[in-house]
Amino acid sequence: MSEETKVDAEVTTDAADSTTEATPKKTGKKKWPIVVGVVAAVLIVAGAGLWVWHEQPSFCNAICHTPMDPYNATYDQELHQTGIDKWGNEASTDAMLAVTHKATGSTCMSCHVPQISEQIGEGMNWVTGNYVYPLEERSLADLVEARGIASEEFCLNSGCHVNDDGSVMTTDDLQAKTADMKRNPHVPQHGKVECGECHKAHRASVNYCSGCHNDADMPEGWISSADDKKLKKAFESGAAA
Ligand code: HEC
Ligand code: HEC
Ligand code: HEC
To answer: Fewest Cβ atoms nearer than 10 Å: which of 22, 119, 128, 158?
Structure first.
């Protein structure tokens, strides 16, 4: 897989310490405030327009067609169907967070909250071709890492998952919600399991507990740990070709 990495983004600028003298140009000094003002105004207007567009799902694959198309394809689906996942496999749309959250009005940016540091890095990687395609899988934990928060804080907050009375859902509330499931997935029976270990956005979610307990309840469209392993293996061998 690593062979696909096309360009090393590192740019060596050893030539910089050559003997060229840095002669400061002193002419045209008075025009600077005007030029700076005009440039700033243009940037603000362009930037505001770009920011609005940037929030639309269309932005993601307009800028980066190839790597983003499969993600837009998973997102652009309706609930309660057999659709496709990001790797082109059949998958229940009810088992993919991207679709279930689209139905509640989320856009790409609701989950992929823009972080300037990340975006600059991603932009550079795209421009220089420094990425593997298909993209390597990230996790929910990776997604929130740049913002310095944990997955549960990201999902269980006043703007997102709340109880019927409007209070923020706690992990205890979550356990109560799925208490009727055999092998309640939200009980950290053997230690904490990352939310994203089970809940997947762009492919079918996985019941991690099924890896050892074949009596674990499987929600409609979810896949077992065994099928998850098969999918990942198929992806890895395909991606290496
Ligand atoms: C409900 C939240 C959510 C929405 C909406 C969402 N994503 Fe994601 N995205 C995730 C999560 C979580 C991951 C981590 C991998 C996974 O769970 O599938 C991810 C992973 C990714 C990745 C990294 C590569 C990978 O396979 O892990 C890309 C690229 C991406 N999403 C693009 C998009 C685009 C483009 C949109 C909108 C068309 C979008 N996402 C909408 C949550 C979301
Ligand atoms: C071991 C697997 C697993 C883990 C880990 C897990 N979940 Fe779940 N979660 C499930 C399953 C299975 C369901 C039931 C889905 C269904 O019925 O469609 C569910 C349902 C949910 C629901 C919907 C509850 C409802 O009925 O309203 C929310 C919200 C949720 N999980 C959030 C989280 C968060 C946040 C985390 C991390 C703190 C997490 N889950 C960790 C498997 C898991
Ligand atoms: C790596 C394998 C493995 C995974 C994954 C796993 N378990 Fe277990 N689990 C075990 C073993 C082994 C036992 C002990 C079996 C026994 O006591 O009979 C056990 C015991 C249990 C028990 C108590 C014993 C019983 O049978 O009543 C519960 C409840 C349980 N697991 C729930 C879960 C849940 C929920 C998950 C997912 C979050 C999970 N397990 C994931 C291996 C696993």
So the answer is: 22
Above pLDDT 90, what percent of the chain? 54
Helices and strands of the chain, counted as H and E runs = 11, 4
Pocket of ligand 2 (CB under 6 A): 151-152, 155-156, 161, 171, 174, 177-178, 185-186, 193, 195, 197-199, 207-209, 219
Q: Is the CB of 218 under 6 A from ligand 1?
A: no
Beta-sheet pairing, 223-224 with 206-207: parallel
Q: Which two tokens stand for residue 180?
A: 């009727």
> What's residue 113's pLDDT?
86
Tell me the pTM.
Answer: 0.84
Q: State the Cα–Cα distance between residues 126 and 159, nearest whole angstrom.
A: 32
Q: What is the mean pLDDT of residues 1-29?
A: 46
For ligand 1, whether the C-beta of 147 sits within 6 Å is no
Q: Is 206 in the pocket of ligand 1 (CB under 6 A)?
A: no
For the chain, the first-to-last Cα distance in angstroms comes to: 8
| b (16+ CB within 10 A) / e for 76-101 | ebeeeeebbbbbeeebbbbbbbbbbb
